[in-house]
């Protein structure tokens, strides 16, 4: 009878699983890595917001200690300041004009780029460039020169300088925003490329033309992207400052026709040194943007189509 020797390695007990670090120790390590962001959020965002909220209930001129006045800034804003309401109307007009035009142009260009076979990368970069440059003060000053008396628009159309006409100045500001359509265009293009070609083929088999395919296939499938762009551009439009400031030379003219909300806030806070009043204006703007965003999300249920849900 023979016996087979078992190697020493086989006779050893199986190696124990590596011991997991205690949960408390793992959480501690996570907080160490998160601490720079948490510290930055507290010091650079939450703390300034708390100070601004406090100042909105005070009379503060940047040079003397703030004096508590309760709701006086808000009462004055809504009942005693006609320029405030002019800035509100100007801002709403700007949002209603600039956002739809910008999104429409971005969608048209995205549709054109989708059908291109050659040079798509070049044109995509070229159309995106204004979004990188348009927010700068230098471009805004060039825009003012184009629409000023004796500028390019005056020579081509003979209408005079738009920036000096109350009925046209805000349109010049809005067109500068529309010109910066590159960012929503890139997002639209990415969404268009995700629409299955089979849907267009099925629509064509059913006899749908290009326009019918756009309404029945492209718009529903692109509605989540359209909604994203709409929310993003609406929030940015409410905060417009640089184009209006440059086109009006920092005065909001002519006749307050380009006095958008943030320009008047800047005027009250840093020109007139009414920082408490400006803080109250900032909080009203924050609340309005929050309400508008909530309304957009609420109404999106009736027109935004998500393929995973299978319905509107």
UniProtKB/TrEMBL annotation:
One of its GO terms (biological process) is transmembrane transport. It is a multi-pass membrane protein. One of its GO terms (cellular component) is plasma membrane. SUPFAM superfamilies: MalF N-terminal region-like, MetI-like. The chain crosses the membrane at residues 29-57, 92-113, 125-147, 167-192, 213-232, 275-297. Residues 88-296 form the ABC transmembrane type-1 domain. Pfam families: BPD_transp_1. The keyword tRNA processing does not apply. Residues 1-22 are annotated as: Disordered. It is found in: Cell membrane. The keyword Secreted does not apply. It comes from the Bacteria. Keywords: Cell membrane, Membrane, Transmembrane, Transmembrane helix, Transport. PANTHER family: ABC TRANSPORTER PERMEASE PROTEIN (PTHR30193), ABC TRANSPORTER PERMEASE PROTEIN YESP-RELATED (PTHR30193:SF1). Belongs to the binding-protein-dependent transport system permease family. This is ABC transporter permease.
